[in-house]
Design brief:
8-stranded mixed β-sheet; Metallo-beta-lactamase, Chain A; alpha/beta; 31% helix; single chain; Ubiquitin-like (UB roll); Rossmann fold; 6-stranded mixed β-sheet; globular
Length: 557
Amino acid sequence: MKKKKTGEERVKIIPLGGLEQIGMNITAFETEESIIVVDCGLAFPEDDMLGVDLVIPDITYLQDNRDKVKGFVITHGHEDHIGSLPYVLKELNVPIYATRLTMAIIENKLKEHNLLNNVKRKVVTYGQYINLGDFRIEFIRTNHSIADSAALAIYTPAGIVVHTGDFKVDYTPVYGDTIDLARFGELGKKGVLALMCDSTNVLKPGFTESERTVGATFDSIFEENVHNRIIVATFASNVDRVQQVINSARKQNRKVVIEGRSMVNIVNTAVELGYIQVPDNMIISLEEMKNYSDEQLVLITTGSQGEAMAALSRIAASIHRKIAIKPGDVVIFSSRPIPGNEKSVSKVINELSQKGAKVIIQDTHVSGHACEEEIKLIYSLVKPKFSIPVHGEYRHLQGQADVAQKMGVPKENIKILRSGDILELREDRATIVGKTIAQGIMVDGLGIGDVGNIVLRDRQHLAEDGIMIVVLTLEKGSNQLLAGPDIVSRGFVYVRESESLMEEARKVLTDAVEDCLTHQRNADWSKIKLVIRDTMNDFIWKRTKRRPMILPIIMDV
C-alpha cells in the first residue's frame, strides 16, 4: 500500500563532484534509509597537477553511510561518468545499473581491474523501473554522442526528480531512436519536483546540429581526397562518429584500421553488440596495412585532444612503431579541444603539418550537448518546481539558472550548488543544510590518494627552480666537520658553466656550517640543516633571483 504523503517527506541531493568543472560527475540521493548514486566519473588533471594521471571523487560520505548505499545508477558510458567506478568499487562494492552499451564499456574497465566477478551488474532497458530502497528509478531514452544514453526519473518520497544526464535533442540520430520527449511531457503532467539539467552548452543559443551533418562532411572530404590516406582522430567513446567514418569509407571501398587501446576496446564492444555496423573483412589490423595502397586505407585513432601517449600524438612525433606520416596524408580532427587542451592539440597539428600532412579541423564535429533552445524545450515539457543546474563550470550553472528563470521557475527555487553541498528537498522548499568532503583524489601510477597538495607544491617547486643537494660528513660524538659540504645540483644551473657560482656557494656554506658548529657545539642536525637552508637560500637568491629546493644530507662516521 502506498504511504500517504504528510508534506514532511524529504530527499537530500549531494553532488560529490561535477560542479565547478566538466568532469568527475557523481551525485548521491539520500533518504532516511537509502542512498543511490548517479554516475561515478573521473576528471583529467589540471596543468598544475604535475605527474598526476587522473582525479577521482572522494567518497568518504558514501563510506560513512555504506549500509544505506543501494547502488550506482549510470546515465551513459563516457569517462567523466563511469571512469572512477573501478577505483570506487574497491572501497564500496554495490550493484551497478546501466543500459546495454554503457554496461559493456563498464565491464571492459572492471575486467582490466580484475573486478568483473566481484561486482553485481544489471542491464536496464528504457522505460524500465528499478526499485532501490526508498527510490524508484526510470530510464528515459535521450540522444548524446554515445549510444544508449539515458535520462533518469527518480521517484523519491518528496516527489519526482528528473536528471537529464548528458543529452541533446537529435531528430536524426545515427543509431537508435530520437529522445523520448513524450515521456518528459508525461512526467511534467504528473508534476516534477526538481530538474537537474545538463548545462554544458547552455551559453550557446539555438539548437545543436544533428550528428548526421558530420556524415555529409566526411563524405565530401573523402571524395576530395580519393588518392590520399585518411586518418580520423576522435573520442574512443563516440561510437556514432566511428560509424560515420565507416560509412564514408565503405562508399570508396577503403579498409579501416582502428588504432589506440581505448578505441580498439570500445569499437570491438560496439561491433559485438550491434551498435556499429561493419561489412565483413572491412576492418583490418595494423600488420595488414602494408598490403594496401594509401587510397585504400582509413585509420581511426585516439588522440584528438593531443594526449601525450595517444596514438595520434605518437604518430605525429614519429615514435609510433608501425605508422608514419607521409606527405599527402589527410588528418581529420573530429572533435573540439576540451578547454585546457588547446596547446597540446596545436602542438600535434604543427607536427603533422611539418611532415606534409593536410590537417582538417573545421565542420567535422558536432557537440553531444543541448544548446539553449533544447534546454528550454525540456523545461517547457517537465515544468519543474525547482531547478538544480548540473554538469558545468560556475558560468554554465549560472547560464542554466538564467534559462530556468526565463522558463518560469521562480528565482528562489533555483539552487546553484557547489560540490559537497547537501541540499534538502521537500515538497515546498529546498534548503542547503550542510556540507561534506567533495574534493578530488589524485591518482598517480598505482598510487591513489598518496599525492596531495604538499607533494604537488614540491613538484611545482622542483619544476620551476630545480634542486640543490648539500652533502656533509660529521664526526660522531664531536660534531667535527670531516668532509664537505659538497653541492649537487639538478634542474638549477648547468654546473660546468657555473663553476664559479658553485665554488662561491660552497665557500659561503662551509663558513656558515663551521660557524654553527663552533658556536653551538651540541647543535642537533635539524639546527644544522636549517642553517644550510637559510644560508643557501639567501646566497642563491641574491646571486640568481631563484629559489631552488635545498635538500641537506648529513652523515656521521
